[in-house]
Amino acid sequence: RNIILSTHQDDLSELKTMTDSKGDYFCMNKLIYDDIRSGTVRQDILNHFRKEAAVQQAHMDMGTRRARQRMQKGWRKILSDVDDTLTSSGGKYPAGIDTSYNKRVVYPGVIGLYRELDLGIHGPEEFGNSTVGNLVFLSARPHVYKDLSEKQNFKKFQKLREREGSKLHTIPSLLAGDLSSGREFVMTGDFEPLARKKFDNFKRFISIYPEYKHFFVCDNGQGDVRAGELMHDQFPKHFIGLFVHIVQDVQKSYGFDAERWRKKGLMEKTCFFRQYPDAALYAATRVPPLIQMRGLNRICHDAVADFDMILPSQWSSETQKNDRRSELNQSLWRCNAILKSAGERTVPLIQTTRQWQDGEK
Fold first, then answer.
1. Where are the alpha helices (DSSP H) in 170-269?
2. Collapsing DSSP states into helix, strand and coil, what is residue 181?
3. Cβ distance 150 to 176 under 8 Å?
């Protein structure tokens, strides 16, 4: 308590973020809402967070010297689903429904999108080795005894930090689901408890990080779209972007109603997409932009590298591979048109594997 209450403004933000970037279950959310038993102490800390966030915002409003320094960071938290958003479920129930890629395949370009959203548009173009990022995964998988479930996810995240090619730019935090919402979904097929649990996690999270803006990257297979709407409804000024990976027809998305979303201003901050370069294209061309145009270029390069890293054993057939290559190339072509018009270098498309050698019959 004393350490937190004696830390202020940007130093407090860094302390909280570093606590969430250790690669384990022991994060700020657990400390504030589980480990601290005194409601009075908890409220004192949350009030301190709000007070310091108000001071930080006052610096930005007045354009002080500190504000100019703060603009070198994005001041965003990127919250993301895992199954059918970061990696494909392969259609394995109850994890997800997407069969476009096989199970555990990392979607081409997703890791680059996380990085560029975190970097923002005013700061450096890459993360330094000592820079702490702002990536948080919202998982529907429940917290069970101790942290057994979370350990499996953190092992997956660490592999993505160490792999060749594009890799996670930071050690992410994880907010898990619970047994009751998961059980209700499995027993009844009702997505509402899953959506409400993710929203409850977000509500806790934003109380810890009121000085940040927040994105949610998800898919439309289960309850994420509804969770995104709840986030916007209660925190419209803090919630600035919803990226929805399309794994089924958009009209089948649980909780989605285009007309209702337009009336409440949610459609203008939502991107439905099938390929991650298309999500990056939206982010680079939104007014005002969410990422740099060079960031769009980097995401496209990452998508090509990610596709090339998919092992032969991870494809069900050559037809599946060719179809995904064609879809990704179409996305890259759309991005290249914008990159070219902006004076940036274009990205070479993914070449098909040569089947015949010169002169071969």
1. 179-188, 192-208, 224-234, 258-263
2. helix
3. yes
Q: How far apart are CA 212 and CA 120, in angstroms?
A: 12
Q: Is 231 within 8 Å of 259 (Cβ atoms)?
A: no
User: What is the arithmetic mean of pLDDT over 199-220?
Assistant: 97
Residue 8 has pLDDT above 90, yes or no: yes
Decide if 299 contacts 112 (C-beta within 8 A): yes
Cβ proximity of 295 and 109 under 8 Å: no
Helices 276-285 and 318-341, axial angle in degrees (round to 10): 10
**Residue 324: band (very low, low, confident or very high) from pLDDT cuts 50, 70, 90:** very high
Please state, in angstroms and rounded to a whole number, the distance separating the CA atoms of residues 174 and 139. Answer: 7
Q: In angstroms, how far is the first alpha carbon of the chain from the final one? A: 77
Q: Is the dihedral of CA 126, 207, 239, 113 positive or negative?
A: positive
The pLDDT tens digits of the residues spanning 87-102 come to 999 999 888 999 999 9
CA distance 115 to 135: 8
CA dist., res. 97 & res. 72, Å (int)? 39
- Dihedral, CA of residue 334, residue 335, residue 337 and residue 340, to nearest 10: -170
**Cβ-based neighbour number of residue 335 at 10 Å:** 26
How many CB atoms neighbour CB 202 within 10 A?
Answer: 25
Given CA atoms 200, 202, 203, 207 in this order, what sign does their dihedral have?
positive
